[in-house]
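name: query_chain
kind: protein
chains: 1
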Amino acid sequence: MKAAIQVEHDVPVAVSFVDTPVPGPTDVLVRVLACGLNHLDLWLRQGGTGDTLSLPRIPGTDVLGVVESVGTDVDGALIGRRVLLYPGQSCGQCEHCVFGHESACRGFKILGYHVDGGYAERVVVPENLLVPVPDNSLNWAAVPVAYITAWNALVAKGGLRAGQSIAIWGAAGGLGYAALRIALALGADPVAIVGNTDKKVWLRSNGFEGHVVVRGKNVVQEVRAHTGKRGVDLVLDHVGAHTFNSSARMLATGGHLAFCGVTSGHLTEVDLRRIFGRQLSIAGTWMGNYADLTAVVELLDGCPEAMPAVTAYFDLDEAAAAQDEMSCSETAGKFMLVFKQQS
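structure:
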């Protein structure tokens, strides 16, 4: 089969032919239809993240495919089913796994990062990672990482509900846009924070009619002004050091900071008086759990307007170029590899 492989760090992925993987007794072989790109792919390429990584590795965390064959202990009725893959693998035995919090497992591994993923015509995964989806769109491949991370941060931990206000950093990016669509689907009032006016235009062109703040020195004041200076109920921050204190200042008394990324750095100073004085709560999110993906699929199946916006589609042979284009910070929306022909 053909695959794009990260052979070593700091070089583009290389497309070559490799042996088709064989499913074990409790595994399934999935023929990949499409694979969404994520910043995890770029981190794998660059290395030096502090994570334990081994190369060569086939990237690709967001995978949509069709079950092609199954292991000896798996029900053959799954063959032919269109599925998303939950992008994490855990031990299945620790207290976190037993209670459905797989992403907290100390042995948690990410598809396409720690184990081979979807930049390939086929991939083998355990049966329990499958989530059936309708046959209506290839854009399901842009769902897993962004949407389960957003769902876990906003709903599972943040308790977001109809009528509440939420500020979303990077609302034109993959994770931010997923959070925006989920918030709207739940009946919340999102404030979209974007890096420039082009991204504001992009949101408008994709149907968002709510409040948009272009990031600048007055971003906190603009967000608070939208709520009559009360502050928002929840902030989704996946930027880190450059935004953390601004996020806390945006919150209303009793507000919730959902935190899930450090793209701008991981060290910052915090005025702790703001945290206890305003009775704020802060919850960290590392991806999400299998139950988050099933909840997201149910939401999107009933609310298709909340599906992700895909900016560009690429062939597998164009994987390196797709990563290069995604690495540009001016790009809005999701990028996707689509598998048109397979061998």
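note: The longest strand covers residues 27-36.
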